[in-house]
Write a structure and sequence with these properties.
Blueprint lengths: L5 H4 L1 H21 L19 H10 L4 E5 L4 H10 L4 E5 L10 E5 L2 H15 L4 E6 L5 H17 L4 E6 L9 H13 L4 E3 L6 H9 L10 E5 L3 H4 L7 E7 L16 H8 L14 H10 L6 E4 L2 E3 L21 H16 L6
Parallel strand pairs: 1-2, 2-3, 3-9, 4-5, 4-6, 6-7, 7-8
Antiparallel strand pairs: 8-10
Helix pairs in contact: 2-11, 5-6, 5-12, 7-8
Length: 352
């Protein structure tokens, strides 16, 4: 069950679906001797019904595994798992209180994502000032993004100024209009790289940072989060450097290069998968969890999935305006970011 934007519009929804589709094709061949005959189906709350009702529908259809995506699905997922102990559940981006043998969570540390973006921003700035615009002062993911971003900048150059603009709360919800105001504040203060991880404010931050190409302030670059903002926010392409993603299907063409390290074995070790489960086609943390469920194990509790930077973007695809600033990361910077991605996963560097 996807988040409210469905498979077409949100990266985490799409990547989770792709991972499940890969498992549908490959897990029966490697785990189920008779070929299995696995099938998959998806639903989106809102257009197809309420979360609780959709989960009940899948239970009635005798699904072996139900995967739900997003924090807003957490309560319904935990309640259904408690009521249906014979069905296995995985909650993506959900933190659950207590522990059920048939419920596992897969979360993605936003502080590590922020750290990678901070390292990139510190490497790309010319003014010595970078900024992050957040949807909340206290919400855990916003706090994690802010902390990781500041530490990533300091890892490269502690003398770079880090501006943090957060929605204060109590004055409505963060939206694109507020994001534009926050981005203006950051740009007026000299920022020339702006990170926009907010789900509510991000669109406005990116558009305001982009300007029109001719009136863009500071030659500012922007970095998105969660989706491929180069495709989602066309008018921000002139400032778009890259986006940072949560990767439930991390063994994917979009995962970070060059010379991708052999992470897959490390994921297995991190999840402490018993030797009898170590068969082929374990392409992601998500597939390792679902495979253990399939083989009768109990991978309940919280598991951490990786984060990574998406492609760097080339400008000039938009019909009007010009790029805010021509910037392309060097091979040395790409290798540094790849090394940081691995070091964060292995715990060799602490993001917060």
């Amino acid at each position: 069950m996807t988040g409210p934007d469905g498979r077409q519009y949100e990266w985490l929804n799409h990547a989770t679906w792709m991972s499940l589709e890969r498992q549908r094709r490959e897990l029966p061949n490697s785990v189920i001797l008779d070929g299995g005959g696995a099938t998959t189906a998806s639903a989106t709350p809102g257009e197809a019904g309420e979360p609780e009702d959709l989960i009940d529908d899948f239970v009635e259809e005798r699904c072996d595994l139900i995967v739900t995506i997003g924090a807003e699905m957490g309560a319904a997922t935990a309640a259904s798992a408690d009521q249906n102990p014979d069905v296995d559940f995985i909650g993506i981006d959900q933190h659950h209180d207590g522990e059920l043998l048939n419920l596992a969570s897969l979360v993605f540390p936003e502080d590590r994502a922020g750290f990678l973006v901070g390292a990139l921003a510190a490497s790309a700035t010319e003014n010595g000032t970078v900024a992050v615009v957040l949807d909340s002062i206290t919400e855990p993911s916003s706090v994690a993004y802010r902390t990781g971003f500041a530490n990533g900048v300091a890892h490269i150059n502690p003398d770079i100024e880090v501006l943090s603009v957060a929605h204060p709360g109590g004055v409505g919800e963060p939206d694109a209009d507020w994001g534009a105001i926050a981005a203006t504040q950051a740009l007026d203060s000299g920022a020339d790289v702006v990170f926009a991880p907010g789900s509510g404010s991000g669109y406005g931050v990116l558009l305001e940072t982009a300007g029109t190409g001719y009136d863009a302030r500071n030659g500012a670059l922007c970095i998105g989060a969660g989706v491929d903002d180069f495709l989602q926010v066309i008018k921000a392409r002139r400032c778009m450097l890259t986006s940072v993603h949560k990767l439930p299907d991390e063994f994917h063409e979009f995962y970070w290069r060059p010379d991708r390290p052999p992470y897959i074995k490390e994921y297995e070790e991190a999840l402490a998968i018993p030797l009898e489960y170590e068969v082929g086609h374990a392409h992601s943390t998500l597939s390792l969890i679902s495979r253990e469920f399939l083989l009768g194990g109990t991978p309940s509790g919280t598991h951490f999935g990786p984060v990574g930077l998406h492609f760097f973007n080339m400008w000039g695809a938009h019909k009007t305006g010009v790029p805010n600033r021509a910037y392309w990361p060097s091979d040395e910077l790409k290798s540094l970011l790849a090394d940081l991605t691995g070091a964060l996963w292995r715990g060799e560097i602490q993001a917060s």
